[in-house]
Design a protein that fits this description.
Two copies of one chain form a homodimer. Chain A is of the alpha+beta class. Chain A has 13 helices and 23 strands. Chain A folds into three domains: about 270 residues, Bira Bifunctional Protein, Domain 2 (BirA Bifunctional Protein, domain 2, 2-Layer Sandwich); about 120 residues, Anticodon-binding domain (Rossmann fold, 3-Layer(aba) Sandwich), CATH 3.40.50; about 90 residues, Translation Initiation Factor IF3, CATH 3.30.110.30. Chain A has an eleven-stranded mixed β-sheet with strand order 3-7-8-14-11-10-9-22-23-21-20, with helices on both faces. In chain A, strands 16-15-17-18-19 form a five-stranded mixed β-sheet, sandwiched between helices. Chain A has a three-stranded antiparallel β-sheet with strand order 4-6-5, with no helix packed on it. In chain A, a hairpin with a 2-residue loop joins strand 5 and strand 6. Chain A is globular. In chain A, about 45% of the residues are buried. Chains A and B meet through strand 2, helix 3, strand 3, strand 4 and strand 5 of A and strand 2, helix 3, strand 3, strand 4 and strand 5 of B.
């Protein structure tokens, strides 16, 4: 973090607009909303604070219950692997005791030798294990909380199947759960699709992905990926079973791996946050509503104030009983205005203001964090209307973000419109031949000046890369006729592919 | 693991009696019941397999819901700490990139600098954070799955309070939750108490503990500890608040830390297991009941068999609907007898046998894992009687273990009876002066030959150490009169203290 940013981070409130300085805006929001603390001991590491852990645990519970229903079991493998198991050039190695060991960047090399040991017969299939842990990747690039950290929390699922068909079915089933996490919990719209050869996980046969979009800078951002590994790893690790249909002959199993990390929290912050700070979708907010007493002042009689505060505690109890995660801000010495800004910065979805006049009228005044809309709710209806309003906020946040993403995903058939579209903060969907070389060339051809990275630094020359080949293909591609949009490419288009500048 | 053990581990079933070779028995049970797999890459590391993770997650859910109710929040701190933060002589250090870093053995040094930053006013208190993670301790001693592993899962709670009284209250509140985990979930009786000066956590003001007992070898085993850190760390890390009663003067906060690790699973295995293998308490068993078809043979008509297997699936559905975690063993090519032994080895609490004659009589035959007791349950009552029987098993397992521990915890007032009591696999409760030097001397005086460690190796000379000063003090100690039982000690007894050979 630059010194100037450190200074800004100490001021109350968010000091820069999201639109013009997305990078610094982000760094301020994550710290001031107390999602993370920078770990000063070692750069690229972050402490996840309670509001961030609440979000992560919400997603974790949702995902865990889904995969349990699918029959996936939980395991825990060691964090270290020996030097011989890891490509030395790729990750940092170090010595503990006399054994050279590395902390896992991912667990294929830790787990698959045991898959080879445990899978002896087709009756041992499917083997489906998931673990929740943290992994370490000694990133050389600029690190950013959630989006690129040297240690991050994730789940990694690793499964083995008898047939390619069974494996493929699971890849897409998991992708749907990931999509639901974005859409239903984080209120973030995503495009489901397949990665191109250039962008797929190197060890995979094919990679499915959910891709999100950051309107403030028009960049695409990968949400989560689910990989069909085919037989690549089973051949490497010797994971075979006897063919149930052909005694004596062996089949290499078909494997999948799939992972969701705390990166998703970064995506959510980027999509929903505004110049006042964080905006949390109600379903993942650790505090969904905050009650703030208003209109009390030096002239208020102590007994009136006491009675009023007592009534606020009753409102809190009513809401808690209704399942609302609610807090009262009864701090002395702070004005209501200060409190409003403070909770807005922290992204609490709903503010409930309650003054003496409101008490007399038997209502609370509501203020939505997502759109600033005000309203009133009769006290007698708090227990039903507040949960309903929170659900409405959740829905509206998704609908708004989906409409934005929709309008900024341009289906183009003229090459000359591509770079201007990117410069106007869109992603594009274009006819594409799906060739690696062509994709490399497209990246070069679409470089332009004055882009900035997630930390607000100018990054001249950021070209677009493919985000995914959407499963929902638009119309208009004529097989054997439509050409790849790259003017230098002579190939035919295989699909509409979504491209964009990206994280 | 010695070669001879490797061979034995490959034979079906447990090959040694628990009583005579507890160490090897344990090593076989944990592997054959598929709780762990030894990690061959690096010694002292173990893979936790689904049945072990099921136990851990049961405890985790229970504990998490209790501490949430207390207001403890979740956080996640980095796994690495810099060399300057860690006593170099104590833990393994290594280099990643250019920064010398170590993997946390525990997180005081990682967390407390941020406590100093976050705690500015008494309004920031109490600060109560817990994290679930894994820690690494490069043990030089012989490692054993669960009981002493170089990496293990745990939770570590770290809290800060304004007063010593508030802090102490929490220490004991947490200890009660730990005790409940042992007693209610693992069916393991524990003695609650305080560690002596010799045995407390070095950084603590005092340490509370729950202590369990392994009847097979008469050794005590520490369950979990909850520490009152006093101001030791707040002075070291400068964690202060302004005294609310005295402007301008500062108070060092009072801290606690408390941890529960996967070691508890090892304690449970040791307490309940028998010569047939693992015995799981129903509340933490991933499979609570297994249905095994019996009496089918080559003469059974295929349509009769199909109808029977269909009925078994119905029984399974009935039980699942009643909340029972049940599995059907419909493997072909295995005799019922083999299956009985297999599930007994895996510790499944309840076996349900179902044959053609049982179907005709509309009953299932039950067989309890804990005591071998047989019975029958009418099909119409499965949904109520199976859950009730599982609860009965849970209770009986606790009652039996508690009676054993009770009878093997000898209150002694004659020194000469101490070593014979230990040799007969008891722990002892004796009048003790609580002095460190005296405790050291007691350890020497009680050494005797022919003890074995948890891996079955002869360990001549294991003396007894203090396990705890039980909170429930027996009668009979006369203040200023009763002497410490150590014949060489001139001191007066301060308490009845529980001593024993131990893990």
């Amino acid at each position: 973090m630059a010194d100037s940013k450190n200074k800004a981070a100490k001021l109350v409130g968010i000091t820069v607009p999201k639109e013009t300085n997305c990078g610094q805006w982000y760094v301020e929001v994550v710290q001031k909303a107390e999602l993370v603390e920078y770990y000063s001991e070692i750069s690229g590491f972050y402490i996840l604070r309670p509001p961030a852990m609440h979000i992560w645990n919400s997603l974790r519970k949702f995902f865990q219950s889904h995969i349990e229903g699918m029959g996936v079991q939980e395991a825990s493998f060691p964090m270290f692997l020996s030097a011989t198991s890891l490509a030395k050039e790729k990750y940092g190695l170090h010595n503990i005791s006399s054994v050279p060991v590395a902390v896992r960047p991912t667990s294929e090399a830790v787990m698959y030798p045991y898959y080879a040991k445990w899978i002896r017969s087709h009756r041992d299939l499917p083997l489906r294990l998931n673990q929740w842990n943290s992994v370490v990747r000694w990133e050389a690039k600029q690190t950013t909380p959630f989006l690129r950290a040297r240690e991050f929390l994730w789940q990694e699922g690793h499964t083995a199947h008898l047939t390619e068909e069974l494996a493929s079915k699971e890849v897409l089933e998991i992708l749907e759960v990931y999509a639901a996490i974005f859409e239903k919990l984080l209120a973030v719209p995503v495009v489901r699709g397949k990665k191109t050869e250039a962008e797929k996980f190197a060890g995979a046969s094919w990679t499915s992905t959910v891709e999100a979009f950051v309107p403030a800078n028009g960049r695409g951002i990968q949400g989560a990926t689910s990989h069909a590994l085919g037989q690549n790893f089973s051949k490497m690790f010797g994971i075979t079973v006897e063919d149930p249909d052909k005694k004596g002959s062996h089949i290499h199993v078909f494997q999948n791996s799939w992972g969701l990390s705390t990166r998703v929290i970064g995506v959510m912050i980027m999509v929903h946050g505004d110049d006042k700070g964080l905006v949390l979708p109600p379903r993942v907010a650790n505090i969904q509503a905050v009650i703030i007493p208003v209109g009390l002042n030096a002239k208020t009689k102590p007994e009136d104030k006491a009675k009023h505060m007592e009534q606020i505690q009753e409102l809190k109890t009513t809401l808690q009983t209704a399942g609302v995660r609610v807090q009262v801000d009864d701090r002395d010495g702070y004005t209501p205005g200060f409190k409003f800004s403070d909770w807005e910065m922290r992204g609490v979805p709903l503010r409930l203001e309650f003054g003496l006049r409101d008490a007399a009228a038997s209502v609370v005044v509501t203020s939505r964090r997502d759109n600033g809309e005000k309203g009133t709710i009769p006290l007698a209806e708090l227990a039903t209307q507040v949960p309903a309003l929170l659900e409405k906020i959740q829905e509206d946040m998704y609908t708004k973000a989906a409409a934005t993403f929709e309008s900024r995903r341009l289906k183009l058939t003229e090459w000359d419109r591509v770079v201007p579209a990117l410069d106007s903060r869109n992603v594009v969907i274009i006819p594409f031949c799906e060739e690696i070389k062509c994709e490399d060339r497209i990246k070069e051809l679409t470089r332009s000046e004055d882009q900035e990275d997630e930390n607000g630094r100018k990054m001249p020359g950021m070209g677009m890369k493919s985000l995914c080949i959407p499963f929902a293909q638009p119309d208009g591609l004529v097989a054997g006729e439509t050409k790849c949009l790259n003017p230098e490419c002579q190939g035919l288009a295989k699909s509409w592919t979504m491209f964009g500048r990206s994280y």
